[in-house]
Amino acid sequence: MRKVYDDASSALAGLLKDDMTIMAGGFGLCGIPETLIEAVRLSGVKGLTVISNNAGIDGLGLGRLLETRQIRKMISSYVGENATFAKQYLSGELEIEFNPQGTLAERIRAGGAGIPAFFTKTGVGTQVAEGKELRQFGDDTYVMEHSLFADLALVHAYRGDTEGNLVFRKTARNFNPMMATAAHVTVVEVEKLVEPGTIDPDHIHTPGIFVSRIIEVADTVKRIEQRTVRPRTAAVEGAH
SUPFAM superfamilies in the record, alphabetically (predicted)? Predict the structure, then answer.
């Protein structure tokens, strides 16, 4: 099975359609499949339901798809860095399904593991639990959450081989490995593409069986949402 494609557009060819559900890895701007997201934008598909921890920021990541109004619904945890998101939500243009962050992660993991639903204490007694089944286990009440499974998962990895075995780097791992397992088709962008056998089997985070298509995106920009540092003068004074 041929998995390696020349670019993002060819890797997504035949996969995109209106009103589909897409998972997009990343946390803030860390580990987002930015090249694949841009290819989705250029395709013009619309009415998308996007499952992602957040929606990027204005002008970057999934924020690009919000600007073109290609997203109909977001299933997310944190969206506080995107003014476009807030504007569309408050005006009724964008539907949101909020999740506690751990619940979102487990819904995705469960989807990849073939588990249809699970019970958690998180959210009980809050708006998160409204309209959902509650069940008593011992002395505690739990809320039932359904798993998530998408038509397409877009993933960013640090290294991958041509068979699709993936290695993620530090915090850029975040939601990417879980999402790679929880979709009918997974398309991955990797910073370094290597030959099979190059990666130590013990270092593989996601086996290639989950990956359908892969592209190499060298020289990716490591973006930072909010750079927080000490003023240089204070740092110098502190050294003395």
Answer: NagB/RpiA/CoA transferase-like (SSF100950)
- Per-residue pLDDT 10s for the chain (240 aa) are 789 999 999 999 999 999 999 999 999 899 999 999 999 999 999 999 999 999 988 889 999 999 999 999 999 998 877 889 999 999 999 999 999 999 999 999 999 999 999 999 999 999 999 999 999 999 999 999 999 999 999 999 999 999 999 999 999 999 999 999 999 999 999 999 999 999 999 999 999 999 999 999 988 887 777 777 877 775 555 555
Question: Other C-beta atoms within 10 Å of 184: how many?
Answer: 13
Q: Tokens at residue 133, please?
A: 């089944």
Distance CA 62, CA 107 (A): 20
Residues across the chain: 240
Burial of 14 (0-12, 13-18, 19+ CB in 10 A): exposed
Instruction: Please report, for the chain, the start and end positions of each structural domain, with discontinuous segments joined by +.
Output: 8-116+147-216
Max intra-chain CA distance, the chain: 62
